[in-house]
Amino acid sequence: MTYIYSLFQYIPFIAEGVLWTASLVLGGLGIGFIIGLPLAIAQSFGGKKLGKVLNAYVWFFRGTPLLVLLSLFYWAIFPSFGFKLDPLKTSILVLGMRSGAYQSQIFKDSIKSVDYGQILAAKAIGMTQRKLILYIVLPQALRISIPAWSNEYAVILKDSAICFALGVMEILTRVRYVSTATGLALIPYLFAGILFFVLTFSGTGIMDFIHKRTRIPGMVEGLR
Amino acid sequence: MIVLRAEDVWKRYDDTIVLRGVSLNLKKGETKVIMGPSGAGKTTFLKCLNLLVKPDKGRIWIDGEEITSPKADITRLRQKIGFVFQELNLFHHLTAIGNVMIGLTKVKGMSKSDALKKAKETLKRVHIEEELWRKYPAQLSGGQKQRVAIARALAMDPIVMLYDEPTSALDPGLSSEVLLVIKELSERGITSLIVTHELGFAYEVADEIVVMNRGRIIGGGSPEELRNAKNDEVRNLLNKWNGLKDGVLV
């Protein structure tokens, strides 16, 4: 009973981990967006040679386990370039670069689903490639990508737990401390599970709301 | 005055030669109709005229400027050519009025208020009622969509309108409303080049009909001349389209 009482003392400590996890997720998604969208545009409109070069980036980050990426960048790549970044910044950057690779594929597929006839029509009224991407392709592709992007949020949220390997004070790292300090396992880990569930559920709920609000009237996706 | 001139245009896709030296002139205010069986190269030729398809050989001039020249400012020259597609191709994320406005604001650089005024005027010209202006393409009928597409092209003040089988994706009932709009625009002196399978419409609207087959122009003339065509290949094609065997065309 004393153990359980002491567990309550740790709730604010674990809950603070939500802020760290949120930093990892939002930072990772944000950097991923900044990398992924231009990557998708370049892959879709930049020609075959550029596409192949960019594919190498995508496959490196998609094909390498996150734990390996975190270690590689924290212990080897960043230090060798003279950057001594703390575990949180390293984790956000690595999650972002990795998410960029995944997000590029989400956006690439969405861009592909904007039918080519509209691109021809935009050219026919005198739009340059830059303008047709900006005003015709992206407004539709970004809407189409919201469900898949929502999935990427859920994936990166769960992946953020792996950052405990670098000692980032996110939810799982804190739960491990609490578990060690109290000698209890079930309740702390269950609490961590509930926190992740709530974050996943609320985040995807927000994305669903945005998706519904931005839906193009009368258009059934997949039947364009 | 010739506003559009194509000279010896060739196009090949892999092993198939689609266009074999097509030449054509279009005078200001003229309405010319291109007819021909499927696979004749009509659509490819039309798309070559504003370089949506790049010809392998040949030269094309718009309003005296060569669009096929390596130095040509293609996006500027394309603004002089209105293009209406067979597949409608409206921008799905924009309303009817948004579809007409986007070229005016983003290509011509007009202010939103000026573009709105012009878009409203143009939609009225193609008989799109006010209650449809804020509808999205998915909420419009095929005929309404095609008329919005015509308005989108027309609003850019092109010197020539190109129509690529504008009614082939529509039911007969909806075709007539589109054909009526094209006829009205043509009668108001808008230079038009129309690819169509509607023989009756072609006779009604065309100053000249050009017949294409297997990538070549095989004949042409005024509707009257075509009715009395001497060329066997042209006569056979016209008879086939008309569903008549005795050579009498309506």
Arrangement of strands in the largest sheet of chain B: 6-7-8-3-9-10
Annotation, overall tally of beta strands of chain A: 0
By secondary-structure content and strand pairing, the structural class of chain B works out as alpha/beta
CATH superfamily of chain B: P-loop containing nucleotide triphosphate hydrolases
Mean pLDDT level of chain B: 89
Shape of chain A: flat
Task: Describe this protein's structure.
The complex is a heterodimer of chains A (224) and B (250). With 224 residues, chain A is an all-alpha fold. In chain A, 81% of the residues lie in helices and 0% in strands. In chain A, helix 2 crosses helix 5, helix 2 (11-45) runs antiparallel to helix 8 (171-182) and helix 3 (48-63) crosses helix 5 (87-112). Chain A is flat. The termini of chain A are far apart. Chain B has one domain (2-242): 3-Layer(aba) Sandwich (Rossmann fold). Chain B starts with a strand and ends in an 8-residue tail after the last helix. The interface between A and B is medium-sized, with 24 and 29 residues.
Quick summary of this structure?
The complex is a heterodimer of chains A (224) and B (250). Chain A is mostly helical and 224 residues long.
